[in-house]
Write a structure and sequence with these properties.
single chain; 98 residues; Thrombin, subunit H; four-stranded antiparallel sheet; 0% helix; globular
Length: 98
C-alpha cells in the first residue's frame, strides 16, 4: 500500500472484512483464512477527490459513510464496492469533521 491510512473500520457481521480510508481512496479488505491471505479492493470514487478522514459502517454492513476534510460525506456501497453519493448537496458542514 502506497498511502497512509487515516482510519479503519471493521465490518459488524463479517470478522474477515474491513475498510480503510486513505487520502483519496477507500479500500475494502478481505481476509481468506483458508489460504491466509489479505486482499484489498479499491473503491472507484469517480471524479471525487477528497481527503477522507474517517469511516463509519452501518449495522447491517450495507454502506460505509466517510467524512472528509472539506466537510462533506461520502456514501460507499459495501456489497458492490462503489461510490453511491455524497452530501450535503448545497452546503458543506465547515469544520464539522475533525
Amino acid at each position: 500500500m502506497d498511502q497512509d491510512c487515516t482510519d479503519i473500520a471493521f465490518f459488524n457481521k463479517n470478522p474477515n472484512k474491513l475498510v480503510t480510508a486513505h487520502a483519496n481512496a477507500i479500500k475494502i479488505w478481505t481476509f481468506d483464512p483458508k489460504v491466509k491471505k489479505l486482499k484489498y479492493f479499491d473503491c472507484p470514487l469517480g471524479h471525487i477527490r477528497r481527503y477522507i478522514l474517517n469511516i463509519s459502517i452501518d449495522n447491517i454492513d450495507e454502506h460505509a459513510y466517510c467524512g472528509t476534510r472539506s466537510g462533506d460525506f461520502i456514501e460507499i456501497s459495501l456489497s458492490k464496492g462503489i461510490y453511491n453519493r455524497s452530501g450535503p448537496v448545497d452546503k458543506k458542514f465547515v469544520g464539522s469533521v475533525n
